Amino acid sequence: METIIPLLEIIRRLRGENGCAWDRKQTPSTMWKCLAEELYELEDAIVKDDEVNIVEELGDVLFQILFIMEIYADAGRFSFDRVVNAVAEKMIRRHPHVYGDSRITSEDGLNKQWETIKAGEKVGSGVSERPSALDNVPSGMPGLLRALKVSKSAVKAGFEWENLGQVLDTAVSEIHEFEAALSMDQDDAMLEFGDILFSLVNVARFAGFHPETALCRSTSKFEQRFRIMETALEKQGLNLKEISSEEKEKHWQAAKEIYDQKKA
User: Fold this and answer.
1) For the chain, which has fewer Cβ within 10 Å, the N-terminal or C-terminal residue?
2) pLDDT tens column, 67-117
3) Dihedral pair phi/psi, residue 123, rounded to 5°
4) pLDDT tens digits for range 12-66
């Protein structure tokens, strides 16, 4: 706690009588938006493996979390100890193979054990069983993350493809349906495009990687290649809007080659 205390003191001074008017008026709801932004900035730093920014963004995320906790504590809702003790007890309870006598070692077995314990917690707390396997998916999650969460919840309930080939076939089928819908109503085309994205989320899940991470890395790669191309065009006194498609392709391929050489 020694390293946390200075942050808490800063937060309490900012929210104090002689502190900052902006900090004093914040609520958990307004601060959640700040936390969400910081989480995405942290993700970007992690994807880029930028150590300086990872340290900075981890600090920002920690600060936002402590700020929200302090708001609740200041209002007399609950203490820091309650938050820390609750998660510590839960993690110990859900890892009996580490803290208890369970001898499960396979990843599949560990996942099943986790879900069994989690379900038992709901029953023990007096919370009735949910009527749907999807009821635990927050509606406010970003689309890509929510699609993955929905898919995983459906899989836990027993709804799953047999192999990756089937998932890829589904994605290809959705692309064909989108192509057909383009000549019809725009809403139909939009829905079919959404089906493509949803099926690709499942391709990523089945292949064993996070779709958000994959998209972030691809976007970062495009961004870096585009910046290389911009720099090259500027040095040659060229404007991207004024050159032909053939010239754009030539400069794009050159940028890709430079990027690949830097990564090698």
Assistant:
1) C
2) 999 999 999 999 999 999 999 999 999 999 999 988 888 988 888 888 788
3) -65, -45
4) 999 999 999 999 999 998 998 889 889 988 988 888 889 999 999 999 999 999 9
